[in-house]
């Protein structure tokens, strides 16, 4: 797949399939919406690159405006790709605990501002010892568990204790607090507002308690795509860790202000029945978390009925409009798993190839 690199100007209908494309008009619409949303306020976007995995896309959002001038990453390896591509401010929104990865963090501080999450004193002490030994300074934020019940401190007291420890350790620069939330289903705006404010306030409560102890809190990093318009109205939130908004997925169809930018182009290879056809896109090319099937663009009478390793099956209400050789576009319900299956994005605009980007952070598992 990575051997194929179409030239700019090639019509989309002539692309080899399956392939992963980015609709540039939709992508720029999403980036401009974020830029306008965060243009004047004190809260800014810190785009999460676990969803895009491509430095060019991160640089595009930073250039569009409304951001902190940096990004989030899920892993040290993702952070390394971004720093090597010229991004000078990276926040790893997970705990980094093994000695080799902590050493890699310390190395990155020579070229960029690096921040990482903590939620226990042992990890904090390990970060301090390694940073001090290597002459580095690592920014740390305390993760607050709000709704996901994974990592993060479970109480305000625990958060304050960690902040006190962090503020006195060499090699560690205490920055503040962070949290990440999730919401199920397809909520309306009122539900998003209520749930988002409730969760983000839990993070702000920890910040308030830390500041009462006389410890300065520079950063409150909270919010995500489903609360992109909630967090800016909450005084004290300095940045939002949005990711899905950039490429979008069908799971976020309750946010119609964003457009689906990432799509999978395929070709019909068989039409064995009058209401059935088979395409050349399968599970190996397409994310299907929890069994959620992709949707087909522009053909409301056709549904995806089966997804196999290398093929997809469509059924229609009445005669099948997709014949052998026809092209189709699929929308995924989840895009960071989807993107991780591909080596490159083919950027298209109004039916023609504009450029090709290597997905450099693809397969970064450590």
Key structural traits:
366 residues; Lyase, Ornithine Decarboxylase, Chain A, domain 1; TIM Barrel; 2 domains; 9-stranded mixed β-sheet; 8-stranded parallel β-sheet; 17 strands; elongated
Strand and helix layout:
Blueprint (H helix, E strand, L loop, with lengths): L18 E5 H14 L6 E5 L6 H10 L2 E7 L2 H9 L4 E7 L3 H10 L4 E6 L2 H13 L4 E6 L12 H12 L4 E7 L10 H24 L6 E3 L17 E2 L21 E12 L2 E4 L15 E2 L5 E6 L4 E5 L10 E5 L3 H5 L4 E6 L2 E7 L8
Parallel strand pairs: 1-16, 2-3, 2-9, 3-4, 4-5, 5-6, 6-7, 7-8
Antiparallel strand pairs: 1-10, 10-11, 10-15, 11-14, 12-15, 13-14, 16-17
Helix pairs in contact: 3-4, 4-5, 6-7
Structure, described:
The protein is α/β, with parallel strands linked by helices. Helix 3 runs parallel beside helix 4, helix 4 (99-108) packs across helix 5 and helix 6 packs across helix 7. The strands form two sheets. Strands 1, 10, 11, 12, 13, 14, 15, 16 and 17 form a nine-stranded mixed β-sheet that branches. Strands 8-7-6-5-4-3-2-9 form an eight-stranded parallel β-sheet. The protein is built from eight helices and 17 strands. 27% of the residues lie in helices and 26% in strands. Helix 4 (99-108) links the parallel strand 4 and strand 5 (113-118). The longest helix has 24 residues, at 189-212. The protein folds into two domains: 12-20 and 257-358, D-serine dehydratase-like domain (Lyase, Ornithine Decarboxylase, Chain A, domain 1, Beta Barrel), CATH 2.40.37.20; 38-248, Alpha-Beta Barrel (TIM Barrel), CATH 3.20.20.10.
């Amino acid at each position: 797949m990575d051997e194929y690199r179409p030239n700019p100007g090639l019509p989309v209908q002539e692309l080899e399939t399956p392939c992963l494309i980015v609709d540039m008009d939709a992508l720029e619409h999403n980036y401009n919406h974020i830029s306008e949303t965060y243009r004047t306020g004190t809260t800014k976007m810190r785009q999460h690159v676990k969803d895009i995995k491509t430095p060019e896309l991160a640089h595009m959002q930073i250039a569009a405006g409304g951001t902190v001038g940096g990004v989030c990453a899920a892993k040290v390896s993702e952070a390394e790709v971004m720093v090597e591509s010229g991004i000078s401010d990276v926040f790893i929104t997970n705990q980094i605990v093994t000695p080799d990865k902590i050493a890699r963090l310390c190395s990155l501080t020579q070229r960029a501002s690096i921040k990482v999450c903590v939620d226990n004193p042992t990890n904090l002490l390990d970060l301090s010892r390694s940073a001090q030994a290597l002459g580095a300074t690592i920014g740390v934020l305390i993760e607050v568990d709000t709704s996901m019940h994974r990592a993060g401190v479970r109480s305000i007291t625990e958060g304050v204790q960690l902040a006190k420890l962090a503020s006195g350790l060499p090699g560690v620069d205490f920055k503040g607090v962070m949290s990440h939330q999730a919401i199920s289903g397809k909520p309306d705006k009122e539900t998003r507002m209520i749930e988002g404010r409730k969760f983000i306030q839990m993070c702000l409560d920890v910040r308030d308690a830390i500041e009462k102890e006389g410890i300065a809190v520079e950063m409150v990093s909270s919010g995500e795509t489903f609360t992109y318009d909630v967090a800016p109205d909450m005084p004290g939130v300095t940045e939002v860790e949005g990711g899905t908004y950039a490429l979008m997925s069908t799971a976020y169809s309750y946010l119609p202000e964003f457009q689906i930018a990432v799509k999978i182009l395929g070709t019909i290879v068989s039409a064995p029945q009058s209401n059935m056809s088979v395409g050349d896109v399968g599970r190996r090319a397409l994310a299907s978390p929890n069994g959620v099937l992709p949707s087909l663009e522009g053909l409301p009478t056709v549904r995806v009925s089966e997804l196999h390793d290398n093929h997809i099956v469509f059924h229609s209400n009445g005669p099948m409009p997709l014949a052998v050789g026809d092209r189709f576009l699929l929308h995924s319900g989840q895009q960071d798993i989807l993107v991780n299956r591909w080596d490159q994005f083919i950027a298209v605009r109004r039916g023609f190839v504009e450029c090709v980007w290597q997905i450099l952070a693809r397969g970064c598992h450590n």
